[in-house]
């Protein structure tokens, strides 16, 4: 098969379109002929060597296509062997594309429990863009964050795939949402998804400006932080609010005022990805509520994955970047 192959960790230019061995059939596994694959920031970290993937390697966690043995149109759940404990993944858990070949290819092999029917009404790029950010965001907002209709949420970083999905899912269940961004244009785009407004995190006192967008100005019930700015995020919460952390794109260490934290009765919740029951909950929400499909920012052909990575790293887009195959 043809695939995007990484021979050496490093910059996007190290990705090359080349031949790669076909996945071999095996009981308990399904082979999918991919129609589209979506990029995630996680792929950049894999490419840089953060997860010590074997080389040569094929990146990619997200994909949608046709199951070879049945002809069924499917999406791939990239969370492998989560385990039976919903509170946290088990010892065998891994993300597709970390240590076994991923979705930047014509074919991919995954455990049979990791293929589910493609949701009706989604295009191939939308279907490919759904699994990782949909699963991650559903778990962050609802399984961990306990967000309910009538509550309020602040989503940090309006342009990324998780952020756009978070706005859509939260609005879909009847929560009010605000966002942060470095771009007025991205805030306006988030309004188009249903956000009530947003603030520029480049402003020196953005947490207070964000609080003013919350109901009654008392702070948000939940802040979704994928960037690692805990101290500022806590300032945007109401007393008793929940800070849900699922990333560290701007800071890998955080300092907080411990007394302020416990007197504020805040919850600090860490989360990443999710398991099969989280994904089932996501699909049920998509069918029972009016939720916007994944936002697609730009589509590249599979053989231009290096250019797609460069575009992702520039950070100017709004929504997901997808690789497609004719």
What does this 3D model show about the protein?
The chain folds into two domains: 2-130 and 294-324, Quinone Oxidoreductase, Chain A, domain 1 (Alpha-Beta Complex), CATH 3.90.180; 135-270, Alpha-Beta Complex (Quinone Oxidoreductase, Chain A, domain 1). Helices cover 28% and strands 27% of the residues. The protein is built from ten helices and 18 strands. The strands form four sheets. Strands 3, 5, 6, 9, 10, 17 and 18 form a seven-stranded mixed sheet that branches. Strand 1 (2-6) and strand 2 (15-19) form a beta hairpin. The protein is globular and about 55 Å long. The model has no long low-confidence stretch (mean pLDDT 95).
Question: Main attributes?
Answer:
Quinone Oxidoreductase, Chain A, domain 1; 27% strand; seven-stranded mixed beta sheet; 326 residues
């Amino acid at each position: 098969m043809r695939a995007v192959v990484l021979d050496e960790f490093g910059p996007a230019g190290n990705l090359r379109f080349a031949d790669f061995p076909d996945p071999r059939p095996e009981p308990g596994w399904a082979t999918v002929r991919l129609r589209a694959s979506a990029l995630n920031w996680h792929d950049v970290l894999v490419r840089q060597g953060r997860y010590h993937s074997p080389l040569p390697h094929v990146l990619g966690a997200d994909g949608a296509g046709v199951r070879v043995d049945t002809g069924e149109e499917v999406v791939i759940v990239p969370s492998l062997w989560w385990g039976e404990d919903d509170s946290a993944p088990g010892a065998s858990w891994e993300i597709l594309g970390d240590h076994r070949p991923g979705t930047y290819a014509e074919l991919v092999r995954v455990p049979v429990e990791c293929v589910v029917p493609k949701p009706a009404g989604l295009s191939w790029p939308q279907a490919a863009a759904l699994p990782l950010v949909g699963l991650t965001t559903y778990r962050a907002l609802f399984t961990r964050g306990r967000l309910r209709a009538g509550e309020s949420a602040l989503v940090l970083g309006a342009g990324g795939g998780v952020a756009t999905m978070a706005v859509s899912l939260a609005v879909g269940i009847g929560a009010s949402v605000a966002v942060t961004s470095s771009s007025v244009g991205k805030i306006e785009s988030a309004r188009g998804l249903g956000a009530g407004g947003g603030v520029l995190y480049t402003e020196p006192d953005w947490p207070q400006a964000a609080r003013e967008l919350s109901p009654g100005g008392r702070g948000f019930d939940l802040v979704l932080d994928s960037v690692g700015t805990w101290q500022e995020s806590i300032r945007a919460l109401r007393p008793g609010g929940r800070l849900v952390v699922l990333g560290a794109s701007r800071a890998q260490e955080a300092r907080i005022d411990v007394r302020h934290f416990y007197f504020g009765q805040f919850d600090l919740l860490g989360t990443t990805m999710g398991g099969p029951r989280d994904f089932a909950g996501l699909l049920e929400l998509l069918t029972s509520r009016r939720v916007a499909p994944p936002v697609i920012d730009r589509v590249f052909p599979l053989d231009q994955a290096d250019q797609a990575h460069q575009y992702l790293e520039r950070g100017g887009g709004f929504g997901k970047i997808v690789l497609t195959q004719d």
